[in-house]
Amino acid sequence: MKTLVLIPAYNEDKKIGDVVSDVKSKGIDVLVVDDGSMDQTSSISLKKGAIVLKHKINRGQGAAIATGIEYAKRNHYEVVVFFDADGQMKSEEIRKLIDPVIKNESEVVLGSRFLGLAKNIPISKLLVLKLAILFTRLTTGLKLTDTHNGFQAWSMLALDKINLTQDRQAYASELLQEISENNIKYKEVPVTIEYTDYSKQKGQSIFNAINIVFNLLIKK
């Protein structure tokens, strides 16, 4: 199946070149959606062989994902893998996410760091994620072991069923709501998420988590 790895990025030039090169070495097309960066993210990504789309202003990760999905639809990709730009995901694990989609075992495959490995995860992050898992179960009914994990594989058939409206981090919870409301067949697979000093700086704070809940409630 024609597969695209979609990487939303904002001021990620310290890592983006290595991330793009690593994924490209697996023989997969890479799309970087530069969400209004003020550094060399776009030029570095292009030099490393990525397709690059750029927002003129910073709109948020959800908006970058939506832009990438529209590109994938226009260019007839069949599988889209969401992948972070900060280097905390492992490109060698992409295959285990896309295989169930290729084999028609699942429409969506969600990576789980708690079935796999959350290496060097901060205690504060662990607490926020555990609360988010509970929130997800209560609001969607999905019995997940992880949530807000950006490592996912979606079939185009599944992407055609959803309506992504959240421009910022609330999009991650919105995706899970869409899976539940549209009865999309999903599964979790173990993945490794490695937290470095750089990725910790780029990550969400507890205040962002509160904003996510607020945005989802406003939508309702």
TrEMBL record:
GO molecular function: transferase activity
InterPro entries linked: Glyco_trans_2-like, Glycosyltransferase_2, Nucleotide-diphossugar_trans
The protein, known as: Glycosyltransferase family 2 protein
Keywords: Transferase
Boundaries of every Glycosyltransferase 2-like domain copy: 5-148
Domain of life of the native organism: Bacteria
